[in-house]
Amino acid sequence: MSNCFNTANILLPNDDIDMEKWSVIACDQFTSQADYWDAVEKYVADAPSTLNVVFPEIYLGTITKQENDCNSSGDGVKNDKETGRKTKYASMTDDERIKYINTTMDTYLTDGTLKQAVTDGYVLVERTTESGVRLGIVGLIDLDDYDFDPKKKTLIRATEGTVISRIPPRVKIREHAAIELPHVMLLVDDPIDGQNTDGCMETSRENVINIGAVKHGIIEYVYAIRDTFRKLYDTDLMQGGGHIRGYAIEGEAAKQVTEIFAAKQESCGGFLFAVGDGNHSLATAKTCWENIKKSGKFTEEQLKTHPARYALVEICNLHSEALEFKPIHRLLTNIDVKDMLSFFEAEITKQGLESTEGDEIVFEYIESGSGDSAKTANGNEAVLENNDGTCTAAIKTHGISITNRGDRLPVEILQGILDKYLETHANVAIDYIHGDEALHGLVQETKGCGIFLQSIDKSTLFPAINAGGVLPRKTFSIGEANEKRYYMECHKISM
After folding, report:
1. Which residue, 190, 99, 184, is CA-closest to 148?
2. CATH pick for 326-478 out of 3.30.450, 1.10.357, 3.30.1760, 3.30.1490
3. Which of 97, 127, 198, 387 sees the fewest Cβ atoms within 10 Å?
4. CA quadruple 88, 90, 93, 96: dihedral positive or negative?
């Protein structure tokens, strides 16, 4: 059996690049908050940036005929008719943006923007966020050891159901890309042994590199000896993203990291990594790889070493205290709330999920109101205030109660009912929102309905995936939206 986690040749921007402008948050964040991405574009301006080589999903599929949406200002930048703002990216069609991405990738590879920063090694990542110091090791996973089909018991498994319709547009972006910039985070079930790190920082390089002897807390041990590694970057992240440092794991240390993960692979019972973030991104990489294998353009020998066979990911320890599982809320727009509640009531009765006192799960939901104030379900006021202290449309808080759920997760029940509702109400749109505050603001802005979810206990993740396949889509998020992975490292995926 070959190793599913391996060293990589990793590209990073040259020393002259402003790293704060280079590194941009994962493209699947802030999908309902255009002001976030407007601010990123304004901040980056003309500087080299990963903004130029990724496709923020807020823009995906939004413009079909550019001339109908924007007027050219004659400088390659467009004036949006509705907002009047100058924007380079929001005004591009999907095909224009993808062409721009591919061209820019080629430019960055040839004009000196990118350099090979690590050869046959890994990157140790230290990310400081509101949740604490989050650690990870960046390297390559073998896509032949991963499948997003829950029936396949592969070493690397998806944690949520894959929405197949979301794959083709992402494949279109990746299939002609020269490089990949991962926002995929894989989780390893590796209980932390604090004794591993005692005294590591004061020992010499020759004595400290004994990673192969570590049984648990691999990433934490490697972090404890970080001063023996070459520092690659040390920068603040834009838009409240915290701070990030990267260290090169090379030579003997890289060899030992490979060996210890190989040993874990042998003893894991066939399930080594769970996808913590970037499910659809990794599914896209897998689809592109399978398409390459089927194309007939490469021999079996060429396929063994084809760069697209591998995907660059960050491995994080499930047991890290800084790794918080946050719920992902639902935002429904263009909706008749009374109609939705009637549908829920009927489905709850149909499925035998009627609430009984003392044994209920309550999904709190909010809707925009018309008065200056509103009473929540427990009688508390829920008033949204403007910056000047005046009140606007109130938010009304209510609850949906269910019980008798057996072994099913509450989110599974809720999403199942929502899916049925959406099938018969084509006018209703759903979005997935990180953060309570963001949901409140968007409910007010859209006059929609928001449903709050509770997060799962992360200790149940591996057993749940091993037993049942995948969780419902958008079950949890690792941290708040601004704590998501930022693009930094690159890896060539073209021959």
Report:
1. 184
2. 3.30.1760
3. 387
4. positive
